[in-house]
Design a protein that fits this description.
0% helix, mainly beta, four-stranded mixed β-sheet, OB fold (Dihydrolipoamide Acetyltransferase, E2P)
Length: 94
């Protein structure tokens, strides 16, 4: 006869590593080409002037300039409209 009880599996070990999503450069900050502006899942923010979207929906700068957040109306597939946030990198005018 066994002297120890049967052991079940642990209830720990399911914590996934955080993905560090969110805004990395805020309104008014200076961006260089290649700088990551926002890490996101899906399109909470849309790319605007001098901003591109990566394969994982990350927004990054393609020009030197200042980060500027704006809102614009976007038409949904069913004809309704909604306001979306757009990220732009505006070139410095001197």
């Amino acid at each position: 006869m066994a002297h120890t009880k049967a052991k079940g599996s642990t209830k720990l070990g399911r914590e996934s590593e955080s993905k560090r999503l969110g805004v990395k450069l805020f309104d008014g900050e200076t961006a260089k080409p290649g700088d990551i502006l926002i890490r996101q899942r899906g399109t909470k923010y849309y790319p605007g002037v001098n901003v591109r979207r990566g394969g994982d929906d990350t927004l990054y700068a393609v020009q030197h300039g200042t980060v500027k957040f704006t809102k614009k109306k976007k038409e949904n597939f069913n004809g309704s409209t909604r306001k979306v946030s757009v990220v732009n990198v505006l070139e410095k005018t001197s």
